[in-house]
Amino acid sequence: MTAAIIARGLRKRYGDVQAVDGVDLEVGTGEFFGILGPNGAGKTTTMEMIEGLRQPDAGEARLLGTPSWPRNRALLRRIGVQLQASAFFEKLSAREQIRTFASLYGVGDDRADAMLETVGLTEKAGTREDRLSGGQAQRLSIACALVHDPELVFLDEPTTGLDPQARRNLWDLLREINSAGRTVVLTTHYMDEAETLCDRVAVMDAGRVLRVGPPRELVAELGVDSLEDVFLRLTGQEWRE
Length: 241
Ligand SMILES: Nc1ncnc2c1ncn2[C@@H]1O[C@H](COP(=O)(O)OP(=O)(O)OP(=O)(O)O)[C@@H](O)[C@H]1O
Known about the structure:
Bound molecules: adenosine-5'-triphosphate
Helix content: 25-40%
Oligomer: single chain
Largest sheet: 6 strands, mixed
Mean pLDDT: 93
Number of strands: 10
Number of helices: 9
Structural class: alpha/beta
Shape: globular
Strand order of the largest sheet: 6-7-8-3-9-10
Distance between the termini: 39 Å
Radius of gyration: 18 Å
């Protein structure tokens, strides 16, 4: 397995909070990888350090064989990161938004418009970003992350807030991208999503990786019925609810 991502000893502290506490991860090229964990487990911070968007206090991440920090423009062109809707350019329509992202990567308007169609936003192409619904803005941010056909895609809770139809459509899209040989890394709170999409998952809590493996193997290893049971068992969430 050629590694698309190798992270070693990643750490990040915010004041009193040790958000990430020594994370090692390896993701193979073409793999669909999920990062699971309760709120505050350190998933987003880990992803941001791997992406090269946040400087680790310690440790290193290599993407496609290259260190992701300090920031590396050539590398950033090869990866797609789903940014929060708040990162949109102000007052632009959905179409202008994605065309602007596309042009930053030297990608033409045709491809940008096609991506808008892929995420079902053609009808909203003329709508300003601040007038899109939460789910529509979410789909636009995903389209922007994919517009330059990146080799490696990072998505932070991509289906949160989407209606069931949009969620299934996004699953299909992510499967297609992955089948075309792209590596996909996502965080999710939906265990069915992780079970359906991911080749392997890492379960995190309190800044550490507790277990990594294919969902089915983790279920078998712990002798439980589902990935949700694995999650609850490892993170002790049944007592916190
Ligand atoms: N910029 C920041 N400044 C201070 N503390 C932060 C910052 N970002 C995250 N934290 C803290 O670090 C810890 C890990 O946060 P992180 O967002 O990485 O977790 P997460 O697993 O992605 O959580 P969630 O599932 O809720 O999105 C939390 O305790 C959070 O409050």
